Amino acid sequence: MAESLLIGQSLVLAEATKGTGLEPVLRRCFEYREADALLSLSWAAAAGCGPMYLASVWLEQNDCPVHKEPPASPDISRILASVSQSQIEDFWRKWTQHTSKGQSGSTAMT
């Protein structure tokens, strides 16, 4: 069976992810599948997919970390609901540290 994927937005978003250090920080803060899903959902949001319940359509049509097994709308709700306030705060703290170090010439994370 043939499959056609949209890759333009994904190429830009992959470079933005690499440039900002988003992926390694997500992987330090969340389990592997959860990090992939959150990264893919952030790509869908950045691409303007609309409300998160529509993200599953974007994830199916575009090359992204969860393209092979995109979460359905109820799964997206479950994933987002499972993220705790402390995980969000930990992520922001680590990403701020990472980006601050990147601006000073170093990309190593603590």
Features:
single chain; mainly alpha; 110 residues; 6 helices; disordered C terminus
Structure explained in plain terms:
The chain is an all-alpha fold. The chain has one domain (8-99). Helices cover 65% and strands 0% of the residues. It is built from six helices and no strands. Helix 2 (22-29) packs across helix 3 (32-46) and helix 2 packs antiparallel against helix 6 (85-103). The N and C termini lie far apart (45 Å). Mean pLDDT is 90; it is low at 105-110.
DSSP helix count?
6
Number of domains: 1
- Mean pLDDT score: 90
Regions with pLDDT < 50 over 5+ consecutive residues?
105-110
Rg calculated over all Cα atoms: 15 Å
Look at the helices and sheets and give the structural class: mainly alpha
| DSSP strand content | under 5%
Question: Level of helix content?
Answer: 55-70%
Q: Biggest sheet, open or closed, and with what strands and sense?
A: none
Q: Would you report the number of β strands?
A: 0
Distance between the termini: 45 Å
Please state the overall shape, judged from the principal axes of the Cα atoms: globular
Give the helices and strands as they follow along the chain: HHHHHH
Write the layout of secondary structure elements.
Elements: H1 8-20, H2 22-29, H3 32-46, H4 55-61, H5 73-82, H6 85-103
